[in-house]
Every structure is written in C-alpha cells, then in structure tokens.
Amino acid sequence: MAEAAAAAGGTGAGVGSGSAADRDRDRAGRRLRVLSGHLLGRPQEAVSTNECKAPRAASAATAAPSAAPAAQESGTIPKKRQEVMKWNGWGYNDSKFFFNKKGQVELTGKRFSTACHDDVVKIVNLACKYNLCIIPIGGGTSVSYGLMCPADETRTIISLDTSQMNRILWVDENNLTAHVEAGITGQELERQLKESGYCTGHEPDSLEFSTVGGWVSTRASGMKKNIYGNIEDLVVHIKMVTPRGIIEKSCQGPRMSTGPDIHHFIMGSEGTLGVITEATIKIRPIPEYQKYGSVAFPNFEQGVACLREIAKQRCAPASIRLMDNQQFQFGHALKPQVSSIFTSFLDGLKKFYITKFKGFDPNQLTVATLLFEGDREKVLQHEKQVYDIAAKFGGLAAGEDNGQRGYLLTYVIAYIRDLGLEYYVLGESFETSAPWDSLVEIVCLFFRVTQIYDAGACIYFYFAFNYRGISDPLTVFEQTEAAAREEILANGGSLSHHHGVGKLRKQWLKESISDVGFGMLKSVKEYVDPNNIFGNKNLL
C-alpha cells in the first residue's frame, strides 16, 4: 500500500501555544505513545495480496526459467501481522494518528494498493513529477529510526508499503534459486519454500515480520549465517526502482567481474536511493537432521576463547551464541516449571554437579547455545568436534533443551520488551562487531556474542530502565545509546553489524568510513536521486 499524508516538519496540535516546557512535555508524551502504540490491536481489515494488473515487463535476468514451475499463487499476510499495528513512518513528530473508541490506533490518510513492481514504478514516477517524498517500508522492524519522518520535511510524504508484494514468483530447482517480491516476510518465505522441500536458512531475530527488501536494504544477518551466509552471500539478483530508472544486472550469474558490484550500492542503502521490488536469492534443501546443544563455561573469557578457537578451525555450527551470566539467569527465569518430581530432581543434580563438583560460580558462568544442521552422520561428527574444543576451555555439555530454549529466547526478547512498556520499563538492544582482541574490553554490560568470524564477532547489548516520572524517556534512551556507541567506537567496535545506521547513528558514519568514503556515498545519492525523492534522511 502507499499512504499519502501531508507532513509539515514538527507540526502538531498545540505547537504554536503554551510554554516551552508544556510543548516539551506534549512532544515527549506523543513520542512515547507512538513507541508503545504497536502494543494495541489493529482494526480488523481485509489485508490480502492482489494480482498486479499492469503488464509485467520481466527482464531477461528475472524471467522465470523454463524448467521452473509457474509463478505461485499470491501469498497471504499472517493474521498476527494484520493484528499488529504497523506504523507507516514511525514518525515520533507526526500527529496524523488517533486512538479510536476501542483504544486501537488508526492512521489518517488515503490508501492505495501497491501490489507489484509496476505499481512501484508508477508511484516513483508520480513522486518525481510532483516532487513528493517517499519513505519505503517493509516489515517495520527498524530499530535505527530508519522509518521516522524527518522533522524538517515540508513535502507530502508517501509511505510506500511493500507488504502486498509478497509472492514467490518462481523457483529454479536446477540453480537452487528463488525469485521473490521484496515485501514477503521471512516467516512466510520459509513456509512457502518448505512446501517444496527448500529453505533460505536466513533467520534474523525479526524473521516473523521483516521482509526480503528490508534484509537487503540494511545488510541483514541471520542466526544461521555460519552455514547459509549473511544477506550479501544469499542474494544473486536485485531489482530496484529509483528516480533515474531501474537498477538491475543483466544476468543471474553467481559472480561478475564488472567493476564495483552494484549490489553493494543497493545493500545497506536503507531506502535512500529507491525501492527494492524483487530479488533472487539462493535456496537449499531442508537439512536432513537438526540438533540443539549447549555448553557451560566457568566465565565469559573462557567462553570467548572457545568461540575464537572454533572460528579459527572453521568448524562453527549453524548457530553458536554465547550468553553472559545475566542473560543466562534471565533465560533460566523464563524456564517453564516442571511438573515431574524426577525431572526436578535431575535438574537439581545437574546444578549440583556444575556448581559444587566442577566448582562453577553461578554468578560467573556463561553458556553457549548451539545448533547443528545437515546430514545426520556429519552433524554427529561435527558435534563431537565442537564439544572436544569446548572441553579444552573448561566447557561442560549443558544439554539439548537448554540449547533449544536459548535459541528460541531470541524471538521472545522483543515481546518481553513490549510487555515491559506496559509496566513503565523501556528496554532495547543494540549491536556491534569487533575484532577478537577487542571483544572482552568492549563488553561490561548485559550482552551476548551472536555471530563469529575469522577476524572477530558480533556482540549484542541490552539495557532497560523504569521511565516512571521521567518527562522525556526517549531522550534518555537516545543519550544512553549514544554514550555506549561512543565507547564502542573508541574501543575498536563498528557502528553496526546488521541493524544499520538510520538516523539514530548517522552522526558517526563519516568517522566510520572516512571523509572520502562518505563523499562517495553522497555522490551516488546525488546522481541517483538528485531531487531527494527518497528523503528519509538515513545514513547521510
């Protein structure tokens, strides 16, 4: 859908009257209401995909292979997706929303169907003709203020929602690729591919709501990247609509030596250059066997040393994530109560063995969760290799159940964060990547190591505070992350591993990529979008 709404920067009821303090309180209240608005139910409405009525002009690169089946029927949007309020714009400074009599949040403005690539081309052409601002939105899971409407934007803003562009257009079983529309969610993509015996293996924390287009535009990473790769490893072809025209390669070859890869101009562009409409991605047969596991370490340092050795030997399982002690205790608190006396006895025995017999301090130990996938025999061999390495660093096998629960905890955290808002607790996570020799120095908070590489790892941080009595809690949140980000950068960490820059972190981008690198990005933006039609003001 595309929703057009007039957006005068910083406008809203009461802006022109009252004291400065009153206006600040009003602004803070509106920002917080928007932040918590997605907790409320969405008005029931028919949300379904439509066939694109415009003739589809498939390029040679994206035409369905002759050996592939015909395009599948239109996908569906999960009911849960319909019930969750998706903020088109997530504009803390916007006032074009209201609470209806049922306490549900609704947005004003007309809506028009956007069902395919050709519809997007028409919208972009109209925006160029009438000098409108476009902000593309997929699953709305950005945590970098990437979807906020710029406060100083005076043009009409079109929120271009790709959620109806959610079909798998073709599957090529010979080349193990699938051509999909950019608005399909990860969960729906995996569900449909599973029916044919395939998967992408890309499982970001936001799998339930995030879209292929969002993955590409933010350079996403998934929990099983050790086998399947990050999004840049999965993408074979991208189609993008810009004010200058359509960007795409001429073929679906696995690799090209034709100068700098244009895909890398698109990946990470965060909606500043155009709208990603379609992509060809690699698929794999669903693995024959899957097994969870976990390892307890006496302390964080030994856990990191083990992960470093696993990365060095290039034997990482599909997923390996190291939780600090607080994360471990948090996950343990969420463990369901057992009804069996025998099971309870065994749990107590395991705890006694680790803490008393092996001497682990319950307030120091850390746990790594593991996920192995593939051929059963190879998985079992792989599992033994990893556990043997862990033993050299004091690691003890902690069971499959703990591994599975720790893996699934990733999907629960966002819901716990949302629940906290109802109790005046504002919590969030942020991430970075850092070389191995900086890893231990950077971390001193609530954290976990989520991805490992030859040269370093990805680290997640979590924080929360009770905002009762705080006049502007979002400013406190922003200042807290800014201070943490300064420390991360000062200690050799990156600006972001996979969340992106958005508007929240753009102040550090030039420092992160150099003046010349920053100038190169600006030059691309000025050529592709000279009138700043895609004016979300991310990155630059």
TrEMBL record:
Main location: other
Domain (FAD-binding PCMH-type): residue spans on this chain: 104-286
GO biological process: ether lipid biosynthetic process
Ranges where the record places region Disordered: 1-40, 60-79
Ranges of compositional bias, category Low complexity: 60-71
MF-aspect GO terms: alkylglycerone-phosphate synthase activity; FAD binding
Catalytic center residues: Y460
GO-annotated cellular components: peroxisome
Compartments where located: Peroxisome
Principal EC category: transferase
Site-annotated residues for Important for enzyme activity: R321
Cofactor dependency: FAD
Summary of subunit composition and partner proteins: Homodimer.
Family: Belongs to the FAD-binding oxidoreductase/transferase type 4 family.
Annotated function: Catalyzes the exchange of an acyl for a long-chain alkyl group and the formation of the ether bond in the biosynthesis of ether phospholipids.
Protein's name in the database: Alkylglycerone-phosphate synthase
Organism field: Leptonychotes weddellii (Weddell seal)
